[in-house]
């Protein structure tokens, strides 16, 4: 058990009545929508994971506003970014930074406050927390310390891009940012190429042309969409194959937040029955029935059971033909 978790657990078991007054005892809790002030009650203790807008500040849920206003503290990546959202809705909840560079030091403090009974909202600069940010370690530690963790769903750049890309959404894989160095990036693309689903990646404007070119080289002529500045004034979706998008971005570098959505690999075209029979006859002439089935199944992608049934049928037909030939040649 790590020190920050054990201390949080001990605090949760202690007598909280001796806790001195803190920011959670502030008088005003509320927010303003459309000029109408709305008072809220103190939020239940625990860690509340709150999705925030990815660009348009109007894309906030009422439940998120109530949570942010009713919390004792908001942990955020950049206090300046989150302050703009709070100012828009006149929310006075204190902010504290929690990001990659201070997480190891800030996490024990947050766990201690949670153990004392505080209600803490965790937000990212934009979208759903824990997607490409350090929040998962805090959530894991809170669970291990026996503290309540609640999710408040909302905006997500990943899901927004998927909905406008016009590509299959039944299976998708979020790969975050690819490595910045070319060799590592190409190696990662080779790994992603084996995934039988739509790929979703984040990228920056200066790197997107090189990334798309490497994707085209590694994945072939897959259909893709470049989704830029989603929900913002200059929102744009470019669609085309990977190579075409790479050329477009090399000529006209896109700016702002970018999400790339890449179509899954095409399903291999299965051979016809006659083509399968040719492969089976060739394999049966060289190896055992079991090995022939395995060889053809691996080569064609056909289910092994189907190949086995077809091989049995061929062997049986060949045996009957051979018996007929012997019968015709017998002396009378």
Averaging pLDDT over every residue, what do you get?
89
Radius of gyration: 30 Å
β-strand amount: 15-25%
From the helix content, strand content and strand pairing, which structural class follows? Answer: alpha/beta
CATH topology of the largest domain: Cobalt-precorrin-4 Transmethylase, domain 1
What's the number of structural domains?
3
Q: Main β-sheet: number of strands, strand sense, barrel status?
A: 5 strands, parallel
Q: How many β strands by DSSP?
A: 12
Oligomer: single chain
CATH H-level superfamily of the largest domain: Tetrapyrrole methylase, N-terminal domain
Which of globular, elongated, flat, extended, rod-shaped describes the shape? Answer: elongated
Poorly predicted runs of 5 or more residues = 10-24
CATH class assignment of the largest domain: Alpha Beta
State the separation between the terminal residues, measured CA to CA. 90 Å
Q: Main sheet: which strands, in order across?
A: 5-4-6-3-7
Element-by-element helix/strand order: HEEEHEHEHEHEHEHEHEEHEHHH
The number of helical runs is 12
Proportion of helical residues:
40-55%
CATH architecture of the largest domain: 3-Layer(aba) Sandwich
Question: What would your notes on this structure say?
Answer:
The chain has about 325 residues and is of the alpha/beta class. About 45% of the residues lie in helices and about 15% in strands. It is built from twelve helices and twelve strands. Strand 10 (about 225-230) and strand 11 form a beta hairpin. Helix 10 (about 275-285) packs across helix 12 and helix 11 crosses helix 12.
């Amino acid at each position: 058990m790590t020190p920050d978790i054990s201390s949080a657990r001990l605090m949760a078991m202690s007598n909280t009545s001796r806790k001195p007054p803190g920011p959670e005892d502030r008088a005003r809790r509320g927010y303003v929508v459309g000029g109408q002030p709305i008072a809220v009650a103190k939020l239940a203790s625990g860690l509340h994971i709150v999705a925030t807008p990815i660009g348009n500040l109007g894309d906030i849920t009422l439940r998120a506003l109530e949570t942010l206003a009713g919390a004792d503290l908001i942990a955020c990546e950049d206090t300046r970014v989150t302050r703009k959202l709070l100012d828009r809705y006149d929310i006075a909840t204190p902010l504290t930074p929690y990001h990659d560079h201070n997480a190891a030091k800030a996490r024990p403090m947050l766990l201690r406050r949670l153990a004392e009974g505080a209600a803490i909202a965790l937000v990212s600069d934009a979208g759903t927390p824990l997607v490409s940010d350090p929040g998962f370690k805090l959530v894991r530690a809170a669970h291990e310390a026996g503290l309540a963790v609640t999710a408040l769903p909302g905006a997500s750049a990943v899901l927004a891009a998927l909905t406008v890309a016009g590509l299959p959404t039944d299976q998708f894989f979020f790969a975050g940012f690819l490595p910045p160095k070319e060799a590592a990036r190409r190696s990662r693309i080779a790994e992603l190429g084996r995934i039988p689903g739509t790929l979703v990646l984040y990228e920056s404007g200066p790197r997107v042309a090189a990334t798309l070119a490497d994707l085209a080289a590694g994945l072939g002529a897959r259909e893709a969409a470049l989704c830029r500045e989603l929900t913002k004034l200059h929102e744009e979706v470019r669609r085309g194959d990977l190579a075409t998008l790479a050329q477009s971005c090399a000529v006209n570098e896109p700016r702002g937040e970018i999400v790339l959505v890449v179509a899954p690999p095409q399903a291999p075209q299965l051979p016809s029955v006659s083509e399968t029979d040719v492969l089976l006859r060739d394999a049966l002439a060289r190896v055992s029935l079991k090995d022939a089935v395995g060889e053809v199944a691996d080569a064609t992608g056909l289910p092994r059971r189907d190949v086995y049934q077809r091989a049995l049928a061929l062997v049986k037909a060949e045996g009957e033909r051979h018996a007929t030939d012997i019968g015709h040649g017998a002396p009378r």
